[in-house]
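Listing 4. Sequential folding, example run.
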Amino acid sequence: MKLNDPTYWHSLYQSLVNENDSSLREKVIAEVAGLVIEDPYIELLRLTFLSEFSNPKEHIRLAGLIVQQRTPLNIECLTAIAALGCMRALSEPNRRQFIASIINAQLPKIITALNHHASELVCRKINPRIPERINRVMIIPSFFANPKHTPSMLTVDYATIFHQLGCRVFICAPQELEPAKMKNYHGAGRVVNLPAVDLSSWTMHIPEEVTAFVFDKSLSMDERYGKAIDLALQFDPDLVLCVGPYSSIASAFYSVRPVLALPTNTASFLGCADIWLRGSDFFMTENEVTWQQEFPMPLSVMHPYRIFLENAKFRNLTRTQLGISEDAVVLVTVGFRLSSEITPAWADQMCDLIAHYEQVVWVLIGDATPSCLSHLSPKKIINLGIQSRTVNCLDLCDVYVNPPRMGGGFSVLEAMGKARAVVSYADSDGGEKIGVLAVNDEDEYFAKLHRLILNPEQRVHEGRQLAQRFFALYDLKQSQSSLVNACRLAVNHFKERIISTV
């Protein structure tokens, strides 16, 4: 057997998943666990393989340590492990566990190694320059896909704002969450499940003057870094904005230009930035902000603006179109990863609640319906699939239901803007958005959901509260002055850094 061949491990994983004899499966896993491997690549495959069956946190932690010990530095491997670890953390039920998952997987150290490598490439070609004015902005998303992908839409919305401010804008997307041959660095052949890239779908959203370049995922990361640097040389940005949890190439520009970071969740940016456009009022220690002192401390600017609410180019979906009666109480849940985010235990309670109320219908807007919900009647649960603008589906909603997950903040905001009641757990992106109305545990969650189903006046009252909060804090139409101030602070911070190193 060729232990250095990833397809061997992938085949072994599939055979064990399909094996009905549990004793045989356990015997094979025990044999793999007992192997003593010196080659770091084989050990990475062995550890990630074992993480699928037992003690996942410890095996993932050890895999992160192994990756850092590899010499010479394998950029493809580090990028794959970073992407897999980040997306794995997003499946955690709350922010606290999200942060713990990131640290356990050694991502701050792994991303630091990637940042250093990318920074060396940038500094070879681009000299530091202190901009007198912000005329040209380069936006680097962690991943850029299509209008149905909320972080991609956030990228375009900020491109639109900078364009309205009179800036030239260039979207440069090296697709760092999707490195080539990712599955070759995981014993079970895991890849990050990301939406399809479709540049033609942006015609109605991106201003004509804004240009975008999305890199082919077959290119190596060094090829992507090199091309991004060449494009930056041509564009000569005055400022770089990163949209997403991390970007090594955006962090690399920290050496030569002011950098703003706009993370897509309530945790801080995994990288180097002058300004963190903070959307959360969670208390965070300095250690959390710098991710264990791996990254320089950014200036924190409260800048919660995240979505444009209305889009007249899309029609609102109606109950009549879906065959839902006007007197039904419609619950709505949105998410790209609902099939994995909705857990069986939580689903069981939701199913009991839906069965208890004849008038309740649950509408999902996302990927495949979770298997734990497959027994529900088609009249009680409807999956509309992933939509370009979920806000246009919310007219039929009575209560927005955010499951226990780290994410969900953008769809919660859309529900708030439409004055809909929301049920969401605290210590998460969605919970942070609704503030004091977030619930702390499962009992409180379902008790509140029962109350809202039975009490339309309470639904209206909470919906109005949340609409007021949305327009006070989150509406992108109000973001320009705050963004201009953040850019000014970024330039000043960059100037101080550059002068201090001369």
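-- end of first protein; second protein begins --
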Amino acid sequence: MVRRLQRLNEFLLPAVSDTWLTLLRVGLAVEVILYCVSLRRDWLELFQSNGKGVISRDLSEAVLSAQSPLVPRLGWLVQIGGEAGVSEDTALTTIWLLLLCAGCFLLIGFFSRSAAVTAWFLYLCAIKSGNLMTYGMDNFTIIGLFYLMLAPLPDRYALDYRRGKRLYKNQHLLGLFQRVLQLHLCLIYFFSGLAKSIGLGWWNGTSIWRSLTSPPYNIIPLHVLAIFAPLLPLLGIGICVLEIGFPVFIWMKRTRRMWFLAILIMHIGIAFTMGLYLFSLIMIVLNVAAFGPEVMSLRERSVAERADPELAVSAH
């Protein structure tokens, strides 16, 4: 019993370096910056309340209020700005600039904690106010920013560390946050694969066919897609096996690297066949931060031990 508790403690609290935290911080920063840049021309139309956009912000927030009145939204910030004499357009533009600045600060690791909290809150407000137009990418970005907001910042590659801020010496605390992120991804992939395998669409390839031929994701010409149609059932079954098996094979040393690379290839494929670049990017970022250092475990350990002698002592 004591040995089992010790193994559980070693699993949940491994001694790791902060490399994974650097990967998460930089990756999320790029994600937030690209999100802002991609919406720079449509930001006001998307979130104005006067009905200029495709879906008015008032409608989205009314639906949101019916679900929960406590969920953060842009309307709160616009209202605060209105009480200070700031117009709605100016308030929305300021929110966009703050979110972009938060992403830039995260990229260089300047005021990392404040930037992470700001990015998480403003991004959450934006996706909740545009809830009728959001998809998985937004939810996963919020998840990543939430982990970053709570993680033991700064990492050794952040500008905050160069400015003299102390690193967290507790390598086991870093390991706990990474482990929780890993387990979270395992649950996400398992239930995603399980949901796919319940229906027939992923077994006969029709789900993939519909995904690749439905606007605006129909990037591949139909005549080209028809050539590879016989392979779609195998591809669908492979994806189900890949996701359901993720919580098992990502932990086994013999299959870890293969499964990790297969997941990355799957998301790269989604990016180039459906144009879901930001979705693929956030999933790659989360996977690389969670499992990347462990996939290269030997190199990661040697680098970490050279950087921090205390880690070398705890690892042996």
